Amino acid sequence: MEDKLIPEIIQRKRDGFALSSSDIRQFIQGVTDGQVTDAQIAAFSMAAFFQDLDMDERTVLTTSMRDSGDVLHWDAFSLSGPILDKHSTGGVGDTVSFMLAPILAACGGIVPMIAGRGLAHTGGTIDKLEAIPGYNTQPSVAHFQKVASETGFAIVGQTANLAPADRRMYATRDVTATVEQYGLITASILSKKLAAGLQHLVMDIKVGNGAFMKDLETARELAQSLCTVGTNAGMPTQAFLTDMSEPLARAAGNALEVKEAIAYLSGDVHSNRLDAVTQALASSLLVESGLAADLSEANEQIQKALSSGKAAEIFAQSVAAMGGPVDLMERPESHLKEAPVIRPVYPDEIHHGRFVKEMDTRQLGLAVVALGGGRTAADQAIDHAVGCTHWLRSGEVCGAELPLAWIHARDEKGWLMAADRIRHAYQFDDQPLPGKSSMVIEHLKA
Which residue of the set 66, 87, 259, 273 is catalytic? Predict the structure, then answer.
């Protein structure tokens, strides 16, 4: 049968019918070679938004977008372990990638991570890496694969030749109010991961007032879609729903988060929230990939990777191979920029002696953006030195000697703007809170 006209494909989805595999592949081929217009991409996305895509459609859409560009093959590298990765839906202080990748590599995995930039109030892994002098986030594919295979991991930005149909689809969805469609989100995320040649993937779906997914039910729906489609496409995928009702790490801001990751890998800093998420994601991947027999063995491997210094050593090797300083682990303060104004922000006196009830984590992330640590326009430059550290956590007592956070600002004006936003983000109570719930809310598989 001859190909349909593109308007016929759009009309069929608009009218609530399932699309055939050939319909979807034809549409994505047209997106890739330019035969499909931006208006048609917008119409298709809006039809999918209202009529949805079933799991079969989502799987074909995902693999078609994967096949729209280069797909990495690893046979020539004689890898010693399985190819693993994670993806997070984003939050404030989400520094997990910098610990997880070298830990997995130290335990025998290979982690070729293709990451993104910050979006709205959430920080981006690539922006954080660019706080490291000399680090090349856009190397050749050959160099990316060489570093990943030789050191155990490499983190880079998306290239123009990896899932190019996704790049064009997302740009149109972003300006047509069709981003929040689970089938399209699923295809966008997984097409890039499949193009990297992964064998196992774990998803970190953030839930809470600092996440894009504010409630458990919508987060669970997205997680199940990702697990099902990823697994159907030949990449076993699991997902964790994790809490983002307050910043994950002690720091939020590009250079500050790199410093915290270095301190974590060096054994100088331990953050319960950060550790809980990192360990959950890492242990599940080690078991699913066969690198560990069970969670107990996986956790032992993780602790050994950290305590022996092997994970820290691998981090240093990968950073240097990507163009960063060879002594970053030993002398981070010499390479990572520091903000000129570093000062604590205290709560109003009326709240002294009261307990932190909750915080608006999105506003805390926007405080970092307002300092210059994130973007309000796509082409905006980022100030890698600014951000916030040492957040006061839920259930803790505030007072004259206990600041809400330390602000790292470029100037006094920036400090005052961030301080005002942070003060308004906190809520207090006279009574202590009940015990905190687990960071890991739920674990899902296909």
Answer: 87
What does the alpha-carbon distance between residue 28 and residue 38 come to, in Å, rounded to a whole number? 12
Residue 166: active-site member: no
Nearest residue to 86 via CA among 257, 290, 288: 288
Q: Name the β-bridge partners of 84.
A: 200
Known active-site residue 318: no
Q: Where are the beta strands (DSSP E) in 293-379?
A: 341-345, 355-359
The pLDDT of 170-180, averaged and rounded, is: 85
In 131-248, DSSP assigns E strands to 153-157, 200-207, 237-243
Instruction: From 273, 304, 333, give the residue that closes a domain.
Output: 333
Q: How confident is the model at residue 434 (pLDDT cuts 50, 70, 90)?
A: confident
Q: Is the pLDDT of residue 262 over 60?
A: yes
Q: Which CATH number goes with the domain that contains 27? A: 1.20.970.10
Q: One of 125, 149, 178, 284 is an active-site residue; which one?
A: 125
Q: Is 214 a catalytic residue?
A: no
Catalytic residue of the set 58, 66, 86, 384: 86
Residues 32, 95, 122, 188: which is the catalytic one? 188
125: annotated active-site residue: yes
Burial of 276 (C-beta count, 10 Å sphere; 0-12/13-18/19+): middle
In whole angstroms, give the CA distance from residue 55 to residue 60: 9
86 phi and psi, to 5 degrees? -135, 165
Is residue 70's pLDDT more than 90? yes
- Provide the CATH number for the domain around residue 221: 3.40.1030.10
- List the catalytic residue out of 58, 121, 193, 335: 193
- Reported pTM: 0.93
Residue span of the structural domain in which 18 resides:
6-51
Q: What is the pLDDT of residues 283-293, one digit of tens each?
A: 999 999 999 99
